[in-house]
Structure formats: C-alpha cells, structure tokens
Design brief:
Cofactor (chains A, B, C, D): FAD
Largest interface: B-C, 48 and 49 residues
Oligomer: homotetramer
Domain Acyl-CoA dehydrogenase/oxidase C-terminal (chains A, B, C, D): 251-401
Protein name (chains A, B, C, D): Acyl-CoA dehydrogenase family protein
Distance between the termini of chain A: 26 Å
Radius of gyration of chain A: 22 Å
Largest sheet of chain A: 4 strands, antiparallel
Subunit structure (chains A, B, C, D): Homodimer.
Strand order of the largest sheet of chain A: 2-3-7-6
CATH superfamily of the largest domain in chain A: Butyryl-CoA Dehydrogenase, subunit A, domain 3
Domain Acyl-CoA oxidase/dehydrogenase middle (chains A, B, C, D): 138-239
CATH class of the largest domain in chain A: Mainly Alpha
Helix content of chain A: 40-55%
CATH architecture of the largest domain in chain A: Up-down Bundle
Shape of chain A: globular
C-alpha cells in the first residue's frame, strides 16, 4: 500500500504551510480577541473575511473537493490521501478550516449538492457556498430520539399540494446560529408506513428565513459554544417549502445521509491528528521550560514516558487515517466501511487521551483558553458522539469482522 | 475501622436531603437561567441569597466547620467522616455548596483565619465570611513557574517601614472575580535567601480594593468560566498593606499553605463522588428511555457493563474517601498524608472516567449544559491540577510507600 | 458501616501472622523444590502434611467455616468480615490455604455438604474433608457449551432403577488430579424438558474411582498446571451411582450452584488482595535495590507514580471486599448480589493490573518462578473467568442498577 | 511513504502461506504432543527436523537475511519491509520460525557473525548456524544488576596470556538449554576502569562445552518454559577461551550489543502482530459458535465492540511496524531509533491487551494450551522486558521528541 501523496498534494501542502506561517499562526491571538469582544459571537468576523480573501488569492480554496468533482474547484480535485495532511495542518488551528472554505458542515453539504442537487439547487445554493458567501446547516439529530439510528428520526415531512410541511425539533445543528448561514438541509420522515425502514426518510431544503423555523438557542458541548459556527436547537412549526426543494427525491433521505457521512468522519479525524500533534509540541516546549524540585520537568522519567506514548499514538493514528484514505481512494467509501469505522471509533478517543496527557504535563495553563488544547480536547470528545456515537459504528464493524473470520 | 457516621451527622444529612428535595433540585433550572441572563456573571445572584437565608434558617450553615472549631458554628462541629456524605450530597448540584456557606475557596480561607488569624483579623474578615456576607480568595498559583512546587513562588513581598509591598502575578485565583469577594490571602516570597526553602514564604492579607491590585481577566478551564465564583488572573504592582496584615508571621507561608490544603482536597473528592453518582443515575434513566435498532439501550450488554463499572468504581471511590476521613479524624491530617494523597490522586481521575462513560451512554445531550455531567467532568478534570497536580502527590506517596516496605 | 473485625477474628489473624512467620514464609523455597522434583505433581507432598499438622495444633484449622455452621469447627465460626483479612494473609502464599484446610474447591464443597448433605453423606464425605484426610472436586464447567449460563449444562443424568447414569464431559475441574481427591460433586441435566430452565439440573455425588469416570488430562491456565491441586478434563461414560447419591434432591442442581458460588468468589478476591499487596512490597524492595543510568530506580518519578497507583488501588480493592463482606454478614448473600458482583468483576482485573505493573518494575526476574508475582497474575487472570466470566455478572449487576435508578 | 512490498517479498509470502496450509497448521497438534511427551523438553524434535528439510526444499530458508548480507542466503536478501508480513505469518504459530531458520536468538547471532566475525569464526559457527545444524545463545542479562543499562554488566572478562578468563552469572539466556546449542556469545566487562562507560565491555565466543560453564536451570516466564528453546540461568567459573575468540575486538562489546538489537525488536513485533491477528480470528469463531441466555455471543453489543477494538488496534500496530521497517530500509537503523523505540514500546503492550480480550471472549478454554492465545500473551508480556524494558526506550524516545520540538 503506497501512502505517498501526489506531487499536486505535496505542492498544495507546502503552500498551505507557508500560509499558516504567514497568516494563521500570527493571527491566533487577534482572532481570539475579536471573538472574545464580539457583541454577537455568531456574527461575521472581519479577520476571517480578510483571511479568506488571502486564501483565495493563494489558490488555497475549496481544498476538500475531490477529483470526481473537479469541475467545482480550480485545483482539479484532491484524493482523500492527498487531502489528509492538508486537513491535518488545518486541524492545528481549529478555526482555520473556514479560511479555506473547508469547514464542517459546509463541506459535507456542498458534497450533497454536488451529488444530489438539481441544476437550480446548485445554482442557488452550491455556487455561493463554493464562493464562501453563504453558510449552510445539516439538520438531522433530534433531541427526543436516539438519532444514531437514523431510522428513528421523527420530524414530520408531509406533502400538501405543491408544498412540503415540516414539523418537529432538531438539535446539534452545526452552523445554524451563524449570521451567514442561509440554507438548511433537513432530514425528516415522509413515509412512516413504508415497509422498508430505509425508504421512510426524505431530505428537503429549508431557507433559514422560512416562517415557522425558530432557532431556540445555541448549545454548548463541554462548556464550548464553538462560535462563530456553533450548534443550535431548532423548532419546525408548519414550516412550508415548495415541492421542488426536495433533495434527490422522496424516500431518498437515508441514502443521502449515508453518502454524506464518510468524508465528514475522515475530515474530523484528519484535523484531530493535527490538534494532537500540536498539543504534543506545546507539551514538549512546556516541560523543557519548567522545573520542579530542582529538576527540569523534561528530565522526569514519567514525563518522557508520557511524551513517548503521545508520539507513538499519533504515529499510529495518522497511519490509520492514511490507510483508510488510500482504501477509499482505491475502492470507494462503500467498500471501505470497515476502515472508516475503525478510524472513526479509534482516532477521536486516542486524541482525547493524548491531549488529556499533554494538558496534564502542561500544568493548569493547559486547561485555559490561552492554548488550543482544551478546545481540541472538546473537539475530540464530541467527535465520539458526532456522526453517530462510536458504539453504533463498532456494532457494525464488529459484526463485519466476525463474519469475515467466522462466516 | 468504623465508617459509621455519628447520629448528629446522620441527622444533618437527613435534613440536607429534605432541603435538596425542596429547594435545590427544583431551582436548578431557575439558577441556570439567572446565570445565563446575568449581565455580570460574577455578580450576586438573587436566587442564591434567598437560598442562603433558607439554609441558615434550616440550621444547614457552615457545615464544613470541624469539631475543633466548634465555637465558629452552631452545630458544634462535624468530623471529616460526618461531613463526607453531606459534602457528597452537595456535589450533586455543583453550585449548591455556596448555599450552605460550604464552597471553596472560602471554607479553606475561613480555616486559615481560624488557625492563624489574630483577633482583629478574625473580627474583620472571618466573621463576615462565616456570615456569608463577603467572599475571599487564596492567591498562590503563578503563571510563570510550576507552582506545584510551592517553593517556586515568585511574587515578591518586601517590608518597607510599616508596610508590606507586593509585586508579582497570580492566576487561577478562585473567587477573585466575584462581586462579594473582599479579601485575598496572598502567598509570596519574603526571604528568598533563607537557607531553608520552606521558610522563605509569607502570607499577607490584601483587601481587594487595594491600590495596585488589578484583576486582569477571568480564566476558563475546559471552556467553563465557573461563574459566579470563577478563576482570575491578577497583577500586583507595588501593592501596599500594613505590616499587621501578615498571617501568623513572616516566613510561615509554607506552613500555612500545607495546613490549608488537606481539607480542601478531601472536600473536592467528596463532592466529586456526588456528581459521579448523579451522572450514573442520569445515565440509567436515559438508557431506559432510549432505543436503537429496535432494542432499549438498557438491554445492550455493553451498556450494562458500563453501568456496572460505574457503580463499582463509585463504591470504591466513596470507600476510599471515607477511610481517609476516618484516618484524619483519628490521627490528624499530618499522619494521614498517605491516605490523603491516595484519595487526591485517584478519585478525580476515576470520576472523570465515570462521567465520560455516562455522557457517552447519554448521547450528545449529555455533553450540553442541559445536564450537569459536562460541568462535573470539567470539575473532575481540573481537580487533577488543583492543589498540586496529581504527579506531585504521587511522587511523595510513592516515596513514602517504598520507604515503608523497603526502608 | 463498621468494618472493624471482631476480637476473635483479630486474635486468629494475629496467630496466623505468627504462623506465617514461623512456618510458611521460611518454607516457600522448600515447597517449590519438593513440587519441582516431585515425580507426580499431583501427589501428596510431605511438607504440606507436616504443615497441616502444625496448623491444626495451632488452632488454625477450617478457618473458612462461618458462624451459622459453628458445629463444624472448633473456633465457633467466623463472619465474612472476620475471615477477609485472614484469607488475604493466606493469599500472600498461594499454596498456603490448604495448610489451614481453607483451599478451593474444598471449602465450597464442604459448605455444600453442610447445607444440602444428608446425615450419611456428611458422615462419609464431609467428615474426612473437614479433617483434611480427603479432597473433593466440583464438576460443573463443560467444554462444549458456554457454562457461564448454568442452564446450558449438558451432562446427562438419567435415573435407571435405583441408579443415576451420567454421560458427558467436564473440564476445569479443580482438584480432580490430586491423589487425595476422592469425591466429585457433579452438576448435570436430569430433566431437560422441565419448563423451568432452573429446575432441569441435578447434582449427584460420584466417587472418583467409579467405573466410567475418566480423567483425561490436566489443563493449564496461562502455562500453569496449578499442581498439586490443578484443573482437569473428565469424561463420564455410563457412570453409575446409587440414587441416594443425589444432593438435596432432583431438580435442585441450579439452586445448589447458586448458593455455592458467593463465598467462593469472595474468597478469591480476599486472597487476590494478599498477593497484590505482596507484589507491591516486592516491587518496593526491588526498586530500592536497583540502579539504572546512575540513579536508583526508586528515585525515578515514573516508578513512584506506579507504586502510588498500586497502593491506592489495593486500598480501594480491599475496602470493596470488606464492605461486601459486611453486607453479606448483615443481609445474607442473596440480598448482597450487587456488592458481590461489583467485587467479583472488579478486584481480579485490578489485581491483574497491579501485579503486571509490579512485575514490570521488578525487571525480568519478576516474570519467573523465583517470585510469586507471575503465579499471582495467572490467578487473577483466571478468576476473571472462574465462577462465570465477569461479563455475566456485569450483565446482572448493570440490569439491577438501571432498575434501581430508572425503575 | 510507500509501504508496498516488493514482488520478491510477495512471492515468498505466497509460498510461505502455502507451506503453512500444507505443513504447519496441520502439524500443530502433533508438535504439541511430541513436546508434551518428550523426555527432555529441550531435545531435538523429530517433527521439527522433518519440517526444516521441507522448508529448505521449498526455498523458505533463512528468510531473515537482509539485502546487504545477500551472500549468506539463496533468496538474495529481503528488506525489513518485505520481511514484515513474512515474519507476521510465522508469528501465527509460535514454534514455526525455527522451521525456516528464522528464530530468535539465532537470527540475531548470525547477524553478529556476519557483521563482526572473522573469517575463521564465520566458518566455524556461522556456517552451521545458517545450515540449521547448530543453535546459539547470546548471553547478556545478569540477575544481580539492572541489565537494561548495558553498562551495568558485571561478568568479568580478564585476559591471561593468550586466553580470556570469564567469571560471572547470566540469566534469561535464550536457547541455552537446547541440545543443539553449541556456542554462546558472551558480553562482559573487560576494562572496568575505562573512562568511557561504553568502551568497558567486550564480547567473546564461548563453546557450550567449555569447562567452568554451568547451566544452572531453565527459567520460566509466566509459567512457560518456552521449550525446546527456553531461557536458562548460567554460571561462569574461570571459563577460559583463546584470545582469538573475541568478537570484533576488546572494548567493542557495547557497540555490538547496540547493533544487534534493532532487528530483534522488530522481529518480535512482527510476530506479535501475527499472534494477535490469529487470536482475533479464534475469538470471532468462538463467539459465533457459543450462546448464553438464548443469544449468540456474536450478537452481544459488548462482544462486537471488543472485536472492533481488536481489529482497529491490530491495523494500527501493523502499520506502525511497516512504517518503521520502511524507515529502516531507507535510513538505516541508527537514524530510525525513534520509530524503532515507538514500535518496541507500543506493539507488545497492545498485543498483550488484544490477546487478553480475545481470551476473555473465548471463555475459559482460551486460557489453556489448547489454543495459542495464552502462549501468545506470555510472549507479548515478556517482550515488554526483553531487549530492555519499555521504560528505558521510552526514556530515550521521550528525550528525543522533546529535543525535536523544544530544542
């Protein structure tokens, strides 16, 4: 298995590294301060817009777009394998993906439009998304049911005349609070009596300003509001959209959901490698500059063992991501579910543990907003719930492996 | 070893349980909303003041006061063992200890005044603290050194005439932001050339409004500001206080610091048992009310194993706390350092793991502010750093055990 | 909860400590050598018989007997709580329980006779067992089914005239190889069509020399044959015993099995605390006497952290055992299943981890037969399977806890 | 990084797979029985010799030989990367490497001869080793010092006239008991006053039948004697060998030791992947064929989670091994110490955990000699001590990583 990235991928990565050194790292404090003093934490940030312009100018735009969607980007598309180190680098600064129009959930939503959108839908929503002019949300999880089983979804979608009428409640809807977010892709149940549990769902497009759609509140995860993107709770009360707002067609909601999640899971893992790697580097720098009881922390045997563990685990996590990427590139996501599940259920937990260790070595400061570790920890933690809790994927993976060896 | 609490302890616990059912649990949502909508998150909260009055009226006040300080309370003092289940119960609602004037860091500060204060200092500061009229802070940790080695403390305390002059920087100063906080106990270095590293430190009292003392900012841990108590960063620039503001005397700072920490560590652990227990109960309720793939979560074998682990670990953690309490009651804290260190380095980490499991079983909602779990997780996490990172206590405990068996 | 042992318990413990110092520890090497050079590793060992005589003479005999069976011993019976530290002490030398007639499976078998035996059965088998003249086995586990679900048991027991006829296979039959073992208690299925799955089983007594009963081979666990007691695989081919050899009566096999296991599980855990404690002491001595890279091992921070963890975990494991013992003493085993399951599923795994750490600190020698650690590790490991794998008990415990908090 | 093996490597692997199907797996029971009934467990086994002849005939001989030693084998040498999956396959049957003359410690010893032997030494010892006619041992570890610090070695080597005189004690000398073992490479201290701690050691060749060399006993690890290769304790009492028996030259002992260990560590890890993979397959088969409480084990959610974890961890461990191999192939072992240390300190512990889980899923049988799991567990466990305990390598790796990021 050849895990070497292509010359194009290497070239973009090199440019991105330069961009980070020139524009991202030097702006971390400014970004934190703008956000801290923002009246509305979900408003457009001036610094972000400046950086987006620079990224576009540098040809570092829409890097997530894959080769089979080459027409939607200027770089001609990148393989999963090529994108992995690029996305890892973005993971080092958690707000940076948006600079390159590479942030969740917009990337996944744009892919949904590419794969399932009509010409009109693409023109209206995909184009401004690709330009970074608007943002979008994907509304799937519901507070009242275990949404990890997608067939549990209860939001009702009923056709009345030439309209879809939506009623229900959603939460953890990433991006919904953001001022620039204009469109929601909403998963609901349109055909609850269909004998196939996987044909009961439909996805429709709901503009954010549609009557009856209320944003109740932003949610926090482990204390973070993840502004300016964030996660919201929504209520749909007799929300009406035209029939042509359906995606792909009635009854295809489950299919779209399945197609959407593989890249998203992998992108999370790639970014988590980046934040884990950065946490390790921060811990190394700290232990070299602190002393207790007359001895540099870096000379304590336990510190060296912890650093050693972090290094080894990051190596393994990164290799797992790369192999899964290569497998997807070669066989497609449907034939790679074992590797995707292995990655999704392994990397976030490992990274959580790695960052926990780095914070502990770093001392109390490591828990604060002065460093990226606590936020990275939170990111790793909620990834164990996002896109289905790990246990659901382990259920499927375990079953598949048992069949493989005892079938 | 008799771990039975006294009749008095049992009686107070029973009254406290009634109080929780009547006044605390029913007010959780109201409290969250008052805090959420507060203009100043560190201001006095009306609800808190109402509850404090009720607690006083119910004889549930200053429950932390020990038997040897009976004169400072109406209940005549409680042993460590008696206080453990009381404090555990308070841990179930993280803001509730203040209702009973039992919150950190005020409890520790009041004990310092009881043990080391002059008559005047007690009259001026201890009395209103015991009445819950003012709040206090304990300023020890510094950003620029590894403060887990207390001899590293750098804030300079110099006598000039009949004044102490303080210069330096502190952070993680719990309570400093709170509007009612009026007095800081500040640890600094007054005699850096003393050949004994443990006689170089002095503690002085600094009223919050003293010129030259600036509160720079509140800090967050893992995303939480822990308002309305919180943790702040402070700067001391030529802060001047009268010589009589010294605590106990020059050079006794280290001694005071040592005496102060044992109860604080134990109180944290007691409360953590409470929040862990409540997280387990919440998880049990959730898994009984959710289904995936046609099966109640509570019937999944993995869920039962996780619940089982949580139960067993809480049992052990609680027993360890109780044994340590009993040991302190019998031998005093100085002869109980092994058990205190074992508790301090074990319980927070166990509780962090327990709550992590409960959040995972609970689904994404468990990560939000709708439940107490994420905040409890954060509390457990920072306790691994508070009062010295676990590693420092393990260093001492390991050394002691090796000497015991190989001396 | 009062975890103080009774004066009688303390007195016996003190005598036992003296006995260990005088007769057990000084004979460890001799025992190892006798066993090593034995032609038949399952034969009677001269040293064991000498020590048994001394133990009897010292009044340290049948210490496992409980208060409600006082007539079977001279000491008047011990509570679970009293027995815990006594049994822990025996756990420090894994072959020592037999010296005091306190070894598995004979203790459990003797209890079965006490509880369910007829006068004749007691006279014939219990009496010589109590005297230490013969040994016994309990034949329950079968190789072809998951025996953790006792209703899976397949060995067929059919009544023909005035005889029971047994056909089937058993394994992990502890003690079966031992030369002195004379009697097997055999669990089988006598009424497979009974609509209650718990009334299909019967237990009958089968003398070891009965025709048709073949001992196929000794089994090893993790490389250990556990001689001279050991674990065997057996075949029953038309084994015939008189009808009066039934225990308690037909259909009561499951009931007997249930009653038998609680004390056995607790005794294992008590002994495991002993071997864990001893491993910790050995590790302490080793790290104090070894140096690497110019520094005593005991001065390495990582060693101190590991020692600290071992100490804390042993404290917790011991407390859990004691609380469970006290609960059984007060409420009986049937009302203590939650605490028994918590102990059985927690302590062996903890002890395995503790000994693993101690072996690692001890260096390669710790893995050898020169120290008791590897054998203790093996003991802890198979206890996770013995008396039902942990998962089965976690299933029941988890269910019980969920019902408690969400019922 | 291209982790694809070469066509030659793939061809040999394919042939080896056929050989395993035809000759190794079908002979596992026969091998176990021959060893079980052997009068001398360290004698030559007839079955082994038959299989060795077949392996030679099939061109599957000395597969460990690397490309830079092509003259010593017929296959022209294999890279580390090519050898990894071959060695992994051998790891599935722990006694199989000897069939292909690929077993430790002979492979490492042969490499020492290739790298440091004189023409005469090669003729006398390397040639019959390469032919599989004799076996060898490498005597480094000593019972009285922490040998993980190689400079601690105490065995005295003194030149008297034209002889070296050796006095000292060694243990864990793998292969020493084996009947065919003829030559020992012995590390000792020849120049204790040399100011460089790394120039004090010398290695000399000691034929097994030299006067004064006594094999005291075989050692067990975790209950296993690892016959017919095994580990022995040795005493050297005025053992005399000619001066020409020195390897490379006086004072070069440390250098030889360093050069020898990298491949050995990697080979252990490769084999451990094989035994972990096989344990997973055995567990899958077992859980598919067992039921408890009316439900196949394979349908329990906890089983699926455990299987899932094993799969993911094996993937990561294997990738780490492959990357390290590729790094060594490209940069040489000296520039790959970070990756080698990461692999050596990670894979054995992971495999130990994986097999532990598989044994638990497999039920009590999994602990016995009927399956390869317990022996694999033991192998993984002692690898954490072999070639230096993990902690020593973590010390070096941690230091290196800290320097990398904070240098």
């Amino acid at each position: 298995m050849d895990l070497t990235t292509s010359p194009k991928g290497q070239e973009i990565l090199a440019k991105l590294q330069v961009f980070f050194d020139e524009h991202i790292y030097p702006n971390e404090q400014a970004y934190a301060e703008q956000l801290h003093h923002a009246e509305n934490r979900f408003a457009v940030m001036p610094l972000m817009d400046e950086l987006k312009d620079k990224a576009k100018a540098a040809g570092l735009w829409n890097l997530f777009v894959q080769e089979d969607h080459a027409e939607y980007c200027e770089h001609g598309g990148l393989s999963f394998l090529d994108y992995a180190p690029i996305c890892e680098l973005m993971g080092r600064v958690l707000w940076s993906p948006e600079v390159f129009n590479c942030n969740a959930p917009d990337t996944g939503n744009m892919e949904v439009f590419m794969n399932f959108g009509t010409k009109e839908q693409k023109e209206k929503w995909l184009k401004p998304l690709l330009n970074g002019e608007i943002r979008s949300s994907y509304a799937m999880t519901e507070p009242q049911v275990a949404s990890s089983d997608a067939t549990n979804v209860q939001l009702s979608i009923v056709q009345e005349g030439d309209e879809w009428v939506l009623n229900g409640r959603k939460w953890f809807i990433t991006g919904a609070m953001n001022e620039r977010t204009k469109i929601f892709i909403v998963m609901g149940k349109s055909d609850p009596n269909n004998e196939s549990r996987h044909l009961q769902q439909t996805q429709v497009l709901v503009p954010k300003d549609t009557a009856g759609l209320k944003i109740i509140r932003p949610l926090t995860t482990m204390g973070y509001d993840d502004a300016p993107i964030g996660h919201a709770e929504l209520v749909f009360e007799n929300v009406r959209v035209p029939v042509e707002n359906v995606l792909a067609g009635p009854g295809r909601g489950f299919e779209i959901a399945q197609s959407r999640l593989a890249p998203g899971r992998m992108h999370h893992c790639m970014r988590l490698i980046g934040i884990a790697q950065r946490s390790l580097e921060l811990a190394c720098q700290r232990v070299e500059n602190r002393s207790t009881f007359g001895r540099k922390l870096s000379k304590h045997q336990s510190i060296r063992e912890e650093i050693s563990r972090c290094f080894s685990e990051i190596e393994m996590a990164r290799l797992l991501v790369l192999k899964t990427c290569k497998t997807i590139d070669e066989k497609g996501p449907m034939a790679s579910t074992d590797m995707i599940a292995a990655t999704k259920t392994t990397v976030p937990l490992m990274v959580q543990t790695i960052i926990d260790r780095c914070m502990q070595m770093h001392g109390a400061g490591g828990l604060t907003e002065d460093y990226c570790m606590a936020e990275g920890f939170n990111y790793a933690r909620w990834c164990r719930q996002a896109d289905g809790p790990d246990q659901v994927h382990q259920m499927a993976l375990g079953k598949q492996i048992i069949t493989r060896y005892a079938g």
